[in-house]
Amino acid sequence: MSMIINAQVRNEQGKGASRRARHAKKIPAIVYGSNKAPSTITLNVHEITHLLENEAAFTSVLDLVIDKKTEPVIIKDLQRHRTKNTITHIDLLRINRKKTIVTNIPLHFIGEDDNEAIRLGAVLNKFITGVEISCLPADLPNGIDVDISNLSLGEHISLTGLRVPKGVSLTALTHGDIEAHDQSVVAVQEARKMAEIEDETPIEVEDLADSEGVEGDAEKADDDKPRTNT
After folding, report:
1. Which of 22, 28, 92, 146 has an alpha carbon 20 to 30 Å from 200's alpha carbon atom?
2. 131 with 170: CB under 8 angstroms?
3. Buried residues in 135-166 as b, exposed as e (16+ CB within 10 A)
4. pLDDT at position 1, please?
5. What is the mean pLDDT of each run of 10 residues along the chain (230 residues)?
């Protein structure tokens, strides 16, 4: 079953226009890619919020409908209000169903309740929770299952140990030197060793300058330009 996003063309641009759109229960958005000029649009806040309650929407090809014309897109970036957690802006990427796309998908860790070592007090350490993949749109999975039910104390699963669906490639393992890029995904460790890892983790200092002006921060996120940090 296809997922549909209904949109309207947004002729006004800038922070003021974006603010007015949000007050009218619309979400500013931009769609770009496929060698076409970017288009600024608005989405119905209730419709898109309901759609995104389904996790699969973030890793599925969506049908974007603008003026009765439909084109396939994927969600490339999404910004939320820092305190209200409401959506403030969405980037949509046009795709060609016949061309490979590169995107991120989540890892779904399963079997933790059946793991004997964890039941006896060991700790599950998840080093990463998502991976970047390359595939045709038709092969795009909603995620990759990582079965840790039989993982013993001291054992780990690396990228090369993931069961990747047919037609899907992990981009980290396409750079030639697989061993150098084969990072650990998850491990079962002693609780003491896990505590040592947490103690050694650098503490990130929040940029206080970014904490000032929550409403202004939401507006700054909408610069009507495609984002590349996804």
Report:
1. 146
2. yes
3. bebeebbebbebbbeebebeeebbbeebebee
4. 58
5. 86 67 82 91 92 92 93 93 86 95 95 96 96 96 96 96 96 87 95 61 46 41 55
